Structures are given as structure tokens and as C-alpha cells.
Amino acid sequence: MRSLLQVFSFGLCLGLTSCSASGDKTDPGGLDDDGGFKFDAGGGGGGDGGLGGEVTPGEGGTPEGPGCKEATKYIHVVDDANVLYKFDPTVATTAAFTRIGPIDCTGGGSPNSMAIGRDGFAYVSYGTDDPLTGSFNCGGMYKVNIETAACAGKTSFKCGSSGFDKFGMGFATDAPGVTNDSLYLSNSLDAQLGKVDLGTGKVTALGALPNQGGEFTGNQNAELWGFFPYQNPPEVHQIDKSNGKSSKKFTLPSLPSLATATGGAWAFAYWAGAFYVFYDVEPTDSSTNVYKLTLDGKLTKYIPNTKLKIVGAGVSTCAPTSIK
């Protein structure tokens, strides 16, 4: 997601806006004049380098299981120019990003959030907003092929269902190790947890979240996690999928809060025992930094200054949940 301007009313941020690119924009962004991808010289950042070890599946499941393509084992991100990238978490430099291409969905506005399904498609929410009033015009949710960035059309999601127009989102399995999963939403304007019925497009509100503006990620261990940048300091919470309550949290005092920033962009994904926070806080940052948070609470700046403004990240429940 992206916040261009914060509008406060009764202490609540109402101006969480989506990214600035339009849904039909084909400018790939992040490229030099010859069409090559622009990276910092020297690339990688502080932190602990590659993950190391052998990637293993979660309990009772396998990344190569039913419905899982090779591409679904990786994190994917979308930037503010509406371009899709594959992200390899084992690479601690900007070479982790492989450009897939501009998303050719049209008519939905700008990308706001993204989740990845086991079916090999990204589910991307779009919309436009007025940063002065905080109002948001939901443009719907589209399916995008993660191998080609081709648009597969609009999903059945109904804008405004149970009050969900703007949101973060992520898939989590219904039980540890099973292949059935569900898409959960974090309402950006009302701090509510929702669950989408992808058949009917309706959202069921399930309960209050720790804060608004959260981005979700899940895994095949049936866990749902949220990154909440408007907490001060920001926090990562494990979310009870039945009611939105926090069952565990990590506080990130070394990260600036968006509550005191002029704007920013953020996205969030879990992969093989660690969380990846894609974070840009204005006016301090010139582009997205990638932070890695391990399950012991250690936070490192994994890849600084990516030269991208990442507004959405997703990982499917086919992805590995641990390393040896």
C-alpha cells in the first residue's frame, strides 16, 4: 500500500491512499534509458546475507504439492508503476528482483495491495483516492498471471462489501499442511479483519484488528500475520483468523512509524521462517528498503535502496515455511 498524505480526524488516519500509478499504465519504471534495470552499485545491504540452509516445506505440505507451480514458491511484488517482479529471498542484493513486466489490467485505477494464490495468480486490488478527504474509489480486484503479468480479468470481489473498499490482504491455509486456503483482508480505514468468499465476492467481517493500515501475509501452517506501520513503533502481529485478535507480536523500534511521516509505501511477506518488510518512509527514504525479521525478533536491513517503490507483496501457501 501507499500513503501520500495523512489526514487525521479524531486521532485516526483517514488518508491512506493507494499508489500513484494507474491500472492501465505500461511504463515499467525502475529502468535505465536502454531498458535495463537500475540498481545501486554494489547492491546488497546490511543484514545476514543469504538465508543459508536447505529450504523445506511446512508440516504436512510440500511446495510442489497439488496446484503449486514453481513460480508460486517465491514472493512477488508490485511497484507504483504497476510492474510485477519476482523476489527471491535467498539473494540479499537488488538482484533478488526479477522483472516480470507491466500488469496490463485496465480500468481499476492504481495498485493498492496484492496476494498470491496457489493457482499461480496474483490477486491485485486497485483504486483511486482523494488524499485530502481520505475517500477511496475502489476499482476492484483483478487476477494476474505471475509468470507473464498478463491480466486474467476482474474477480468476483464486491467493492464495499462489509465496508471493505481499501485493504491489505493475504492467503493462509485453513489448517496446517492442507491445500485449502482463504483470502483475508485488513481494512485500511476501519481496523477490521475480513474474509473473502472468492465464489460470491462477498466479504465477512470477523473482528477488530490491532490497528488500521495493516498488510497481511500467511503460510501453509495456517498462520496469518500482519504488519502495522501506523503503530508507533511499528509492529508485526500474529492474527487470530476467527476474530482479528493478536496472539503474538514483534515490536520494531528501529523502524520509523508512518504515523509521523509525510507518506510512504509498505508491503509484507513471510517466507521460510522469516518476514520481509518492504518499507519506504517519506521524506527520509528515496525508495523501498527491504527488512528481514526472523522469528527470534531480530530485524536487519536486508536490501537498502531498491530504486523501486513497492506497494504490494504476496506469497502463496505453496511457499516453504522453514529452512534446515
Strand content: 35-45%
Computed structural class:
mainly beta
Element string (H = helix, E = strand): EEEEEEEEEEEEEEEEEEEEEEEEE
Instruction: Count up the helices.
Output: 0
Straight-line N-to-C gap: 33 Å
Regions with little confidence, pLDDT below 50 for 5+ residues = 5-64
Quickly count the domains: 1
Oligomer: single chain
Q: What does the overall shape look like?
A: globular
| Rg (CA only) | 18 Å
Helix fraction bin: under 10%
CATH topology tier name: Neuraminidase
Q: For the residues shown, what is the average pLDDT?
A: 83
Q: Class in CATH?
A: Mainly Beta
Count of extended strands: 25
Main sheet summary:
5 strands, antiparallel
Q: Can you list the strand order of the major beta sheet? A: 1-20-21-22-23
CATH architecture: 6 Propeller
What structural keywords apply?
42% strand, globular, 5-stranded antiparallel β-sheet, 25 strands, 324 residues, Neuraminidase
